[in-house]
Amino acid sequence: MAARSTLTQSNMAGWGFALPAFALLAVFIILPFFFAFAFSLTDQRLISPNPTRYVGFENYERLLGMNILRIEPARDDAGQIVRDANGDPTYPRVRTFTRNNPDLPHLQGMREWFGWRSGDDRVVVLARDVLFMKSLVNTLTFVIAIVPLQGGGALLLALLINQRLRGINAFRAIYFMPVVISIVVVSLLWRFIYDGNDGVLNNILHGLTLGAFQPIDWLGRTDTALASIIVMSAWQAVGFHMVIWLAGLQTISPTYYEVATIEGANKWQTFRYITWPGLRNTAVLVFIVITIQAFALFAQIDVMTNGGPLDSTQTLVFQAIERGYGKQDISGGSTIAVILFFVVLAISLVQRYLTRERT
Amino acid sequence: MAEVNLKQVRKSFGDTEVIKGVDIDIDDGEFVVFVGPSGCGKSTLLRMIAGLEDITSGTLEIDGRVVNDVQPKDRGIAMVFQTYAIFPHMSVRENVGFGLTIAGVSRDEKDRKVMEAAKILQMEHLLDRRPSQLSGGQRQRVAIGRAIVRDPSVFLFDEPLSNLDAALRMDMRMEIAKLHKQLDATMVYVTHDQVEAMTLADKIVVLRDGIVQQIGAPMDLYHKPANLFVAGFIGSPSMNFMDVAVRQASAESVTVEAPALDPVTLPVASGEFAGGGGAKLGIRPQHLSVVEGNTGGALHGRVVLVERLGTETVVNVDLARGGNIVAALAEDRPLSVGANVALSFDPAQAHLFADA
Ligand SMILES: Nc1ncnc2c1ncn2[C@@H]1O[C@H](COP(=O)(O)OP(=O)(O)O)[C@@H](O)[C@H]1O
Ligand SMILES: [Mg+2]
Predict the structure, then answer these.
(1) Does the global pTM surpass 0.90?
(2) Is the ipTM, as predicted for this complex, more than 0.95?
(3) Going by C-beta distance under 8 Å and a sequence separation of 6 or more, which residues neighbour residue B234?
(4) Of A127, A143, A164, which closes a domain?
């Protein structure tokens, strides 16, 4: 058959056209993916005179090693608890347990991550790599905050935009605009918005509160830096997900809405019984895409805070790159990348399971 | 139970007028079918009754109350759509009870009403299934169930059987007829299928291009079509039309003639044919019969197509003196293609229409 022969011929041509892109993908995405796994089991450095050694899971232990230490309060010779001026017990310093303590060799080199009081004792969570733990927590915080913020915000915009109103296309374009601007440019611009002295945000708040508001250095404080980056990131990509929601909304048959009209459903009931169930597949896509993108948080950090202040905006990818290239510790960076891969994989599988089709 | 009255109802989408001044009176408990070719405005008209489309001008009354500006849910109507529009993520029970869920009816009452509707439609055993586990006919039953639960005074159906295969369509047609008897509600039914219209309706409204062509009982439309369009639309196979010349017109009869037809006198009032000139003669295929021999006044021709249905034999005949005619002969006739036949008809059963 003629159709068949053209198909087989164009198949060859098709592969020919695909080859350059495929080769680039292989060199820059597929190979590095496997390299990362391999490097994470070695002590590979970017440039080093020493030969590479296989080290097993040592890199993983160095990142993930954790321990809990219960510290009893210091006591005087009479066995009484020594208390400070506030009446709180005093404790021996953590480093007395983790530095050259012959009784506790497994704690050697660990540092305090966080701790709390339990009775008179103090419980301390030790981590072998506190910086890694901080970036893990920051990254998870970022993900947990941005998924509802960006996904929900995008859905809200999509619902607003999915109406037949005059000039609605202008709004569609405006909401989508930040998406086509590079995140680096957006980050640079938002540095002006967040600026501590003469930032746009401070000026607006100052004006709105008639001068009562005291300027804040949004990116320079540990309690506002990550939140500021979350808000900016949500704003930047909200238009992209809005378009995906919009596509989902338009696949819902108008007849369903007519049924709702005839039954007298109000706006919320219509959303709950028709729109949201109709968006289920779209929701899975949007939430997984946002999650994956959120875990890759890097450019905003690199441009805006460099992980600071006081490591309050350190993230996994930022650390991976910092270690791999900044410190030339390729194996350490690769290990972080591999851990990140499994975290994202696990979360995506859980999300898929939770949003599965129930019959 | 309610009457529905449309008075000079019009509908425009932008500059295009789709419904052009329609007057229809639907009695309480009547089964009315809107029929017409695709695009003639049947659905638009039905959706205006439902309140899904605004009425551009004219008035719509349900049960004596003008409802032009009344919300659909307050009109006492329920609608069944061609695509069923049942929700895939809900069980049959939830689908049937959807209106009650929306209205915030108590659980017990909902269960009771859903069960009641399910009994009427004999689908109690389906209640816990998902729509994906149902056949087309069962889905349509669910959609009808959802309408019944609303306890409407007027049921609106928009081509509810068009997505079903032929055998199922016939079953469901009978179900709907039964349902009408059982519920005794006013029903308005839209279809492009004249067989559905003829079998279901108490009263048929024939529409064309947004204009009512004729309103009447099925047999009125069949025997006394008001115009060429209705004559051609109602009945299957369609009526044969032949251009004829009026030779003579008296008070009670008109004599016509055509190249293929020797002069024949029809017992119709001369009226519009008094001036002579051209007209259209309409003969239903069922009113033609085969005559033996070279009878004068008959239509002679050669069979070009035979469809033997057992109960009926439909033959397509090329007339010797020009033209083509379809005859539906009672019972099975062993006619073959190429055979020469002579067909005749009873002038009392023929129709005469003025040239359009
Ligand atoms: N929302 C609409 N906007 C514009 N034109 C419409 C709309 N709905 C229907 N029409 C037009 O109105 C006419 C009648 O449509 P419809 O009532 O659906 O026909 P039917 O149901 O008889 O097939 C068609 O020509 C159709 O194109
Ligand atoms: Mg229609």
Answers:
(1) no
(2) no
(3) B194, B197, B198, B204, B206, B218, B221, B222, B225
(4) A127
